[in-house]
Design brief:
Helix content is 50%, strand content 17%. It is α+β, with helices and mostly antiparallel strands and 103 residues long.
């Protein structure tokens, strides 16, 4: 009979204990925070369509569903970058990527 007790761990504890996962978790949180800053600046039709992508130290990627959305975000890039800097995010480069639907 096995009387050894197993310690339970939350997902957050497991992620924090693994350096690679912890780094990915921080990057995802940073990307989400950046999106919260720029979302109010987006046209109403795009606010729900834009998803946060990879957030590096000085660059950020936004994911959009189609080329028209990508073109609009590229037009708005200077204003979005200014808003990010105002809120303490040192983003120098904003990349926009069109997501292709899964086949």
């Amino acid at each position: 009979m096995n009387t050894r007790k197993h310690a339970t761990m939350t997902l957050q504890q497991a992620v924090a204990g693994e350096p690679t996962l912890a780094r990915l978790s921080r990057m995802a949180a940073e990307s989400k925070a950046r999106l919260a800053v720029v979302r109010p600046l987006l046209p109403p039709g795009l606010q729900g369509a834009v998803r946060p992508g990879i957030a590096d130290a000085d660059s950020w990627c936004l994911l959009v569903p189609h080329n028209a959305a990508a073109a609009k975000l590229r037009q708005l890039a200077p204003a979005l970058l200014a808003a990010l800097r105002t809120h303490g995010h040192a983003v120098e480069t904003l990349r926009v990527k069109v997501e292709r639907p899964a086949s």
